[in-house]
Specification:
The structure is a single chain. Helix content is 44%, strand content 17%. Strands 1-2-4-3-5-6-7-8 form an eight-stranded mixed β-sheet, sandwiched between helices. It contains twelve helices and eight strands. The chain has one domain: Rossmann fold, CATH 3.40.50.
Length: 302
């Protein structure tokens, strides 16, 4: 895509050279695509955008064809109706995007927070499934009190009042709301990255999409089907995640995801932003293991 299609994206936005605009039905997607090799799909969390994975992506372009969309209602993806912000609806929209890109055969999918929940739902919806799902601090339970105190009171009026998201966007630009949210994650977020989140939260469409996804995410329904996930799942939890308590997530994982393994890293909710080298190495390791398995004779597998 030429510059005309992404002219609304700041010139200094991370990995802007990989940005594309893809219009499918009512959604004008902003998606970053680059690299060579098997397809890796990365899904950001609520309130973030593709920029959340930029430091991970830059280390993987020689190993994977990386696809990182701004999810509907987030970042620079526009046009999504509020009714389309459920996990099943976004899952279907993702499939249409991948089909348009010609990248339906996804080897690995990784997500952060709500993006990890979406990765599970997307995998359940597909006949052609990835070999691995990786979830960084997966949002499989209700958020912690520190998170809800800031955003939960806005969820109900959001559904009927665009004015609410406009007011939050105005406040986000004029107060320390975004800084407060980022600090509450328990992660060390650099100034440049904080500025990018602040820019996003000055966009009413982004605020509305983020709150809408929170309101529409039916986690109990997802967990009822979690045992149907028949691919390997690697979940990475932060020792200091203040949003989604590690002990509670572990109990859910052990009870609902029979093929899941868990590892604990130092850091808060934004683990992949704190440890991009380690996150990239994990994804490469899983891909290498899959490749080694696929090259084995049938008699040696299993």
């Amino acid at each position: 895509m030429g510059d005309e299609s992404i002219r609304h994206i700041p010139l200094d936005w991370p990995l802007r050279s990989l940005s594309r605009s893809v219009v499918i039905e009512d959604i004008n997607w902003h998606v970053q695509v680059g690299g060579t090799g098997p397809t890796l799909l990365l899904l950001h969390g609520t309130g973030a955008s593709a920029h959340s994975f930029s430091d991970v992506v830059s280390r993987l372009l020689e190993r994977f064809t990386v696809v990182v969309p701004d999810l509907p209602g987030h970042g620079f993806t526009t046009g999504a109706a509020m009714s389309s912000l459920t996990l099943p609806a976004i899952s279907k929209a993702l499939d249409r995007l991948l089909e348009r890109l010609g990248l339906e055969d996804v080897a690995l999918v990784a997500g952060h927070s709500a993006g990890a929940a979406l990765a599970l739902r997307w995998t359940l919806d597909r006949k052609q499934r990835p070999s691995h799902i990786v979830g960084f601090n997966p949002a499989l339970i209700a958020p912690a009190k520190a998170y809800n105190e800031v955003l939960a009171p806005l969820l109900v009026p959001l559904a009927t009042s665009p004015l609410v998201s406009g007011m939050v966007a105005l406040l986000g630009g004029a107060t320390g709301m975004v800084d407060h949210l980022l600090t509450s994650t328990g992660s060390a977020v650099p100034r440049a990255q904080r500025a990018r989140y602040a820019l996003l939260f000055r966009r009413a469409s982004h605020v509305r999409g983020a709150l809408g996804l929170m309101a529409a995410a039916d986690l109990p329904a997802l967990l009822r089907r979690a045992s149907e996930v028949d691919v390997a799942v690697r979940l990475v939890l932060g020792q200091n995640d203040h949003w989604i308590p590690r002990s509670r997530v572990e109990r859910v994982i052990l009870a609902r995801l029979p093929r899941a393994t868990v590892e604990i890293w130092p850091g808060g909710h934004l683990l992949h932003e704190e440890h991009p080298l380690r996150a990239a190495a994990l994804l490469e390791t899983l891909a290498n293991a899959d490749n080694a398995t696929s090259c084995q004779p049938e008699s040696e597998k299993g």
